[in-house]
What we know:
Structural class: alpha/beta
Number of domains: 2
Low-confidence stretches: none
Number of helices: 14
CATH architecture of the largest domain: 2-Layer Sandwich
Bound molecules: NADPH dihydro-nicotinamide-adenine-dinucleotide phosphate
Amino acid sequence: MSRILIIGAGGVGNVVAKKCAQLPEVFTSITLASRTVSKCRAIASEVKERYGVDIASVEIDADNVDDIVRVIESCSAELVINVALPYQDLAIMDACLATSTHYLDTANYEPPDSAHFEYSHQWAYQQKFEEKGLMALLGCGFDPGVTNIFCAYAQKRLFDSIETIDILDCNAGDHGHPFATNFNPEINIREVTQTVRHWHNGIWVETPPILDDDCVHFSFNYPEVGPKESYLLYHEEMESLVKHIEGLKRIRFWMTFSEPYITHLKVLDNVGMTRIDKIDYQGTSIVPLQFLKALLPDPGSLGTNYTGKTVIGCIFDGEKKGTRQQKYIYNICDHAKTYREVQAQAVSYTTGVPTMIGAMLMVQKIWTGAGVFNVEQLDPDPFMEALNRYGLPWKVVDFEGSLP
Ligand code: NDP
């Protein structure tokens, strides 16, 4: 028996619900809760039609601990999968502690009024989860998530020591819209407009944001999709990986952006539409970025005509038996194929499948432990095996290209 509560019925929630429903022998009871209950019901009705599985739909205010406790108790969940927004992480963790329920998420907590990504808020729950014998698993999507697992696997299976890691995230897809984001627009734009940091010789080195003319970028030749301009970006998994990959000297994160995307974002930024502070508009207080989100396409709706692929992976430079090695582990995911399977584009899919896998390993007690964990602290082998089985096959090759 494993009873789960999924919070959030957006692009990622849709994939998690469907992938869990595909495994009724693992997930025997699924409840999907979100602010707009009609979104849960729409997903539940597709699940019933396709897999013959019943999912309960519930309205929840995931900013309110008491309301989350009410829903957890009503469905007797043993694990809460949080795929709402990063703002809700702490309230959901508090509700899990209050009800003795395990916890899993895909993005680290962010205070709504400052776009600052760090694990400190959630790592501070270590003792509380440990004392209750509960597991909180942080960042179990693709990046963070699979990229951390690739690092743990490289450390366990491919290298004696790893000197550098470069994480490369490429979306070479085309959704046909002039400008859209592939996951929640507010969270996505906060992430990509911040000052860039990478880690080198024990310190965080700052470089200009991707909208600045002096930002750092280069063209990388991705498998199957070819050369794409890749921009240095700060990404949250680096913060935990520098703690957990022994002897690491440098870690960087690169993401591809098209020229039209950068141009649109520059204009929006220049006119103030990416601001996250409140402004007065005709007597009403609004946050410009939240207003922009309301105008942009819903990422969950992008899948219909999406073509092309995502290529996300890690390049390692290190030593094995005294010999220098460079290895590249990556996954390629096709937007049209994921749409056919679960009516979602590949960015939602590559996030939702690892979320389901992490949840599966937790409810099957293959991954156990008391406290707050980042995924690279757990055994990568069963996760790597499950990626191949559940829709995200990976490859490991000798890396023969060059990096800046
Ligand atoms: P969406 O905006 O599509 O979905 C978010 C869902 O959460 C919506 O259903 C929304 O409800 C619901 N929600 C928001 N606030 C509340 C609240 N206070 N109470 C209840 N429900 C709420 O986002 P995505 O599906 O694209 O992303 C989901 C999460 O996945 C995000 O945290 C994102 O950062 C993360 N992510 C992680 C990735 C990774 O690789 N690790 C990659 C991509 C995303 P409503 O519909 O009413 O707004």
